[in-house]
Amino acid sequence: MKHLLSAGDLDRAQAVTILDTAAAMAATQERQIKKLPTLRGRTVVNLFFEDSTRTRISFETAAKRLSADVINFSAKGSSVSKGESLKDTAQTLQAMGADAVVIRHHASGAPHRLAHAGWTAGAVVNAGDGTHQHPTQALLDAYTLRRHLVGLRGGTDPVGHDLAGLHVAIVGDVLHSRVARSNVQLLHTLGARVTLVAPPTLVPVGVESWTADVSYHLDDVLDQGPDAVMMLRVQRERMGGGGFFPSPWEYTRGYGLDARRLARLPEHAIVMHPGPMNRGLEISADAADADRSVVVEQVANGVAVRMAVLYLVLAGQEQPTVDGQIGASA
Amino acid sequence: MTAYLIRGASILGEGVADVLVQDGRVAAIGATASDDTSAVVVPGEGLVLLPGLVDLHTHLREPGREDAETIWSGTRAAALGGFTCVHAMANTNPVQDTAGVVEQVWRLGRDAGWADVRPVGAVTVGLAGTQLAELGTMAASAAAVRVFSDDGRCVHDPVVMRRALEYAKAFDGVIAQHAQEPALTATAQMHEGLVSAELGLAGWPAVAEEAIIARDVLLAEHVGSRLHVLHLSTAGSVEIVRWAKGRGIDVTAEATPHHLYLTDELVRGYDPVFKVNPPLRTAADVEAVRAGLADGTIDVVGTDHAPHPREDKDCEWAAAAFGMTGLETALSVVQAAMVETGRMTWADVARVMSFTPAVIGRVADQGRPVQVGEPANLTLVDPAVRRVVRPQDQATASLNTPFAGMELPGRVVATFLHGRPTVLDGALVERAGASS
Ligand SMILES: [Zn+2]
Questions:
Q1: Which of A65, A104, A218, B404 is buried deepest, with most CB atoms within 10 A?
Q2: Could you tell me which residues come within 8 angstroms of residue A95 by beta carbon, excluding any fewer than 6 positions away?
Q3: Cα separation of A194 and A211, whole Å?
């Protein structure tokens, strides 16, 4: 794996390898000393053109726990419309010897350009681009789903398994969501069935080619007994300029997850959210804080998954081992 | 003036005859053509002789964006592409919305001497879409403007569009509309469909183009005016124009080479060289545009040659400029899309790339039949050659050709502008004393 640009680039074996590697990484994180020497001497640059403290910290923590040198490069505020800046920045990072660039950008496809336009030789990891992809979010979601819903269930890691047979509902602003796009591709690759639930205005034209069902009615989908419900963040600004929905109240009434809807889920079903949550809009406090909510765990799993991804793109060719536990190659 | 004998070429692909070019005119055709033994012989065996090509849609960028193209470099590219006349779009800086600016562009074209430059006048002041520019004064100027367009922007206010259509009747002008409903395309980046959904790029719905075309043909019918639809790109647009023509509405339509040949699948690599307005559409749209061009629903091919400096394309998709170059590839693309597919003859190519554009633009001495006494604006094409497009080898000052690296058929061997060769043996004929 040279880069991680899109969840759609991963086949089943690669995806399972990442999840298994993440499981091994997570196991090391339960020790007193969490730091591994694996990426000593390597440089990882967090190149963020868009604010996302939580994603940046997650990648930074992952890289540091693998002993990589981390440079945080916040390009936000530096000319957004002038395209030259991405190229210039990339070439600067190349000159500084970046082995991997973790990029978050407001423009869909920016990581793809960074990887393929000849601006940098390093590995590129997409940390979210526009409304396109957020592959590490999908991987951490898949990892969380597998721990809770596959094998023995309840927080164990069924190494080697995929998500065959699971049904996941993804609810909310699909149109603008890179999380939804990445999850639809990855969960399908791993054998799960995905149902997208949203008002028709928040589903893209062209969704018919996606490997997912589409429903406009959350209650109907809940009646199907999904194994997991993933709530997407809905931005209040989406009401302006043409208006994707008439009011927050009507949105919540149709698509919000509250205690009443929570009660309709099967007992084993889990509730997910990529954060940050709009409590009271797409998810009520009851649902967000319920026992079956795994939102906080998703954050922790994000570090393990990003450790796995950085390890596989940077050290994969050399196949080093972490205390003999990781033998997977990229 | 040197005489030239074009020997053995097939005129419009319909019959082989020698053609003598003398004193700016076609002086003789057939056996008598070789009577003048002092004429320079241009071998034409196996080649096709066409009337000089006329482009209704060229962005020469001067004045204002000489870093992308100048009238000099752009018309050299035109000559190499077989064009003897180009219509220079109005979205320059300053905008071509006054007699002064259109006359300046016209003179720069005349001084450069590589192709006749016919400036397009802006429809509205500053292309702002609110107040009519002085169309009558531009029409009466030395540049004798007949085509008016806010191209790059749509004249979206229906009242302004109605007035423009009506007003241009006084001087036989035509309003050339860039059909793009602005609110439906406020953030649009590419054609809205399967590919945009996957790539997460804001979609450009076909309806944003079709709705304006539908409105405009009805306005043209209502006021009895002439309308030209620029670069139509969707199957629905073809159907609307076909319907309008069936009703007797005085509408003409244009397709670009890229909309005849490329699809939105190319956007998957996020390379902004494929970013263009209107966007590349689906394979079904390309098929409909080809069918429309073949059956006459679409009247002309216009290049929409839109050069951009490197920094405007060497960036992420959203930050990049819209547009692609086209003058030096247009004829080859039309050959590939229409001639080699058996949908059009070379005579049809002459119609859509020379005769009809000249009629729409009211250019009296261009787009004329290859007959004795006609102005010698001629293009000699070798249809048998295949060539790989290399941006750095082109005469245009910009590199943004979407056909880079592709193999295309056909090559312009010679171009004659009012009897003088601008291109011979596939290369520009530099003029002594001409400045760059
Ligand atoms: Zn245009």
A1: A104
A2: none
A3: 8
Domain check: are B192 and B243 in the same one? yes
User: Nearest CB to B315: which of A8, A83, A112?
Assistant: A83
What amino acid is encoded at A269 in this protein? A
Q: Which of B261, B390, B427 is nearest to B333 (CA)?
A: B261
- B396 lies in a domain? yes
CA of A192 to the centre of ligand 1 (A): 45
Same domain for B303 and B281, yes or no, is yes
Residue A241 binned pLDDT confidence (cut-offs 50, 70, 90): low
Residue A20: pLDDT band (50, 70, 90) is very high
Query: What residue of B is the nearest CA neighbor of A105?
Result: B316
DSSP state of A213: E
Per-residue pLDDT at A93: 86
Distance CA B404, CA B390 (A): 6
Q: How many domains does chain B have?
A: 2
CA A3/CA A316 separation, integer angstroms: 11
Domains (range + CATH), chain A: 7-133+299-328 (3.40.50.1370), 135-297 (3.40.50.1370)
- Residues in chain A with CB shorter than 8 Å from the CB of B318 are 83, 106-110, 130
Query: Tokens in use for B37?
Result: 């033994």
Cβ atoms of A232 and A283 closer than 8 Å: no
Residue A326 pLDDT > 50: no
The pTM of the whole model exceeds 0.90: yes
One domain for residues B82 and B96: yes
Strand ranges for B184-270 from DSSP E: 190-191, 203-204, 227-229, 251-255
Task: Tell me what pLDDT residue B23 has.
Answer: 96
Whether the bond into B94 is cis, omega within 30 of 0: yes
Q: Residue A78's pLDDT is what?
A: 52
Is residue B434 a part of any domain in this protein? Answer: no
Structure confidence at residue B433 (pLDDT): 54
Q: What is the mean pLDDT of chain B?
A: 97
Residue B15 alpha carbon to ligand 1 centre in Å: 37
| Identity of the residue in A84, A113, A130 whose CB atom sits nearest the CB atom of B200 | A130
Buried b (16+ CB within 10 A) or exposed e, B307-346: bbbeebbbbbbbbbbbbbbbbbbbbbbbbbbbbeeeebeb
Using the 3D structure, point to which of B333, B360, B387 is the last residue of a domain.
B360
Closest CA to B364 of B353, B351, B377: B377
Query: In this predicted structure, what is the pLDDT of residue B36?
Result: 81
Are B316 and A210 an interchain contact pair (Cβ–Cβ within 8 Å)? no
